Amino acid sequence: MAVPASYNDIGGDAALRHHIGEVWYETEVRIPSSWSGRRISLYFESVTHAARVWADGVEVGAHQGGYTPFEVDLTALTTPGQVVALTVSVDNTLTLQSIPPGVVEPTPAGPRQRTWHDFFNYAGIHRTVWLSGTPATHLSGLTTTTDLLDSTGVIHFSLDFEPAPGLSARVRLSDQDGLRVGAQDGSSGTLHIPDPQVWAPGRGYLYALEAQLVDARGKVVDSYVQKVGIRSVAVRGNRFLINGEPFHFTGFGKHEDIAVIGKGHNDAYMLHDFGLLEWIGANSLRTSHYPYAEDVLDYADRHGIVVIDEVAAVGINLTLGAGVFGAPGYTTFGPDTINEQTRKTHAEAIRELIERDRHHPSVVLWSLANEPESDSEAAQEYFRPLFELARELDPSRPLGFANVAEATPGRCRVSQFADVLMLNRYYGWYVLPGDLAGAEIAWEEELRAWAAEGKPIIITEYGADTYPGLHTLVPEPWSEEYQVAYLDMNHRVFDRIEAVVGEHVWNFADFATTPGIMRVGGNRKGIFTRDRQPKAAAHVLRKRWLPKG
Ligand code: GCB
Q1: 184: enclosing H helix or E strand
Q2: According to the model, what pLDDT value does residue 548 have?
């Protein structure tokens, strides 16, 4: 099996595509003989959705959650210079206690996986697996947070390592030209940089912070370089500020989704997608509906692309679209459905995301869920502690979640916890399809009610399925003309509401979905086709977003 890739579409057969449960990966790897005395580990960037790992038949670790990394220690089971057999079981089963939730339902034809999201439930070893040999005495963690106070850059750092006699820590900071601009001894502290080069949208300036462990004789025994961007993020009234300047988000919700490779990370596609974002004038993206590959965040850091980073909590809404995506007969929150155990899984997913991505300057906002039920007391009680947790883990960034259509202003009981209102709305598509004049009035009325709450609003989804090459003189749903007219209508509404600080079209590209009569060859709301060719609407966005001049 290819790694990284989803296994589903590699063989071209239905059994593998729709397999439910475990699959087994096996390989052999030789540990370099020069790694004697080192701690040897495997770091999986992601295994979707659950993994168990064995080395020479001995279980060495397990992990739940398909989009965040984990590490297993192989030191006791490997010998430098020798081969070790690695086995990984990959389980794609989703339950009401997993994030995202799902249910495996028995049917006369065998088990069927039900999900409350439309994207295909791709599974496999989706990202890079690293075999690493670190010195016996090593850095095990490095946390950095940055701020901009007046014209001084502030970098707080904290290093984790096993203390030992004579062992000390220090950091060194260099600018992009490699010039030393700061240094400090100790395992935690703060660096102040007067008049720094700031990280800003469209300008991915990064400093290099090198953390070092030094033994009693002054020898550096381990070091790690972390790229750091100095910038500030804040919400003031209904403005979203980056470095004190109001920021307007333009861009997309995306998916990790490629023909054949599924959700496997692919550098060529990543570069191509970022190239298309630049071509169209997008300054940001949302990692809908799960954390993306670490390379994506690194790229965004380097190029000044702004990121809304989303937890894989999509579909905590078991009544949504009943008969369409959902199933009749489920209640979202309850002892046998979304319960305390689900919340623990959700809390762990938040912890792992923040732990992984907190050092990325590109990440300016955490999204804790996509379209959960949010208009009930149970929802309020479910989410309250999760917002508290995220705020405690990272007080430096605003929080939000993508709100669903049913949870209108006054009905939504979760948006009170959010700093930014993130709205997914389909006026002119799911609501008033084909009636853009009616949609324009209804949409503006709802947006004005949200604006009265005094918070910044990002439209995190608006979109219309469009079959490329289908044309109608009078814009009709599914035609390229309709997608153009639909976007124009939305933009007129946004431009009339001051609190709207962002517009993310759903979706960047067409993507694979669970089979169903609502989808024709997948979800076709892409501005680009699945193979990344522009629909007519791409030119509308380019005209609106591309900086003039
Ligand atoms: C939504 C969901 C997104 C779907 C989209 C659609 O509200 O957040 O995951 O793909 O609608 O196209 O129906």
Answers
A1: strand 180-185
A2: 78
**Mean pLDDT over residues 359-366, rounded?**
98
The percent of the chain in helix, strand and coil, each rounded to the nearest 5, is 20, 35, 45
Q: Is there a single domain that holds both residue 26 and residue 122?
A: yes
pLDDT digits (tens, 9 = 90+) for 292-329: 999 999 999 999 999 999 999 999 999 876 545 556 67
Residue nearest to atom 10 of ligand 1 (CA): 118
Nearest CA residue ID for atom 4, ligand 1: 118
* H-only helix segments in 281-322: 294-303
CA distances from 340 to 98, 334, 382, 402, 463 (A): 11, 9, 8, 22, 34
The token pair at 112 is: 């069927």
What's the total number of domains in the chain?
Answer: 2
Cα(211)–Cα(172) distance, rounded to whole angstroms? 7
**Domain annotation covers residue 109:** yes
Q: Is 286 in the pocket of ligand 1 (CB under 6 A)?
A: no
Pair 153, 118 in one domain: no
C-alpha distance across the termini of the chain, in Å:
49
Domain that holds residue 83: 14-134
Read off the pTM: 0.97
Does the pLDDT value for residue 544 go beyond 60? yes
Residues 144 and 157 in one domain: yes
Residues 120 and 200 occupy one common structural domain: no
- Residue 40 pLDDT class (50, 70, 90 cuts): very high
Q: Would you tell me the crossing angle of helices 480-496 and 436-451 to the nearest 10 degrees?
A: 30
Residue nearest to atom 13 of ligand 1 (CA): 118
Q: Do 121 and 145 lie in a common domain?
A: no
What mean pLDDT is reported for the chain? 96
The per-residue pLDDT for range 327-351, each reduced to its tens digit, is 667 999 999 999 999 999 999 999 9
User: Residue 267: is it exposed, middle or buried by C-beta count within 10 angstroms (0-12/13-18/19+)?
Assistant: exposed
Please name the residues in contact with 22: beta carbons below 8 A apart, sequence gap of 6 or more.
Answer: 89, 90, 91
Q: What's the pLDDT tens digit per position in 508-537?
A: 999 999 988 889 999 999 999 999 999 999
Q: Are residues 96 and 161 in the same domain?
A: no
- Of 212, 233, 254, the position where a domain reaches its end is 233
Which tens digit of pLDDT belongs to each residue from 103-151? Answer: 999 999 999 999 999 999 999 999 999 999 999 999 999 999 999 998 9
CATH number of domain containing 120? 2.60.120.260
Q: Determine if ligand 1 sits within 6 Å of the CB of residue 120.
A: no
Note whether 63 and 19 are same-domain residues: yes
227 CA from centroid of ligand 1 (Å): 34
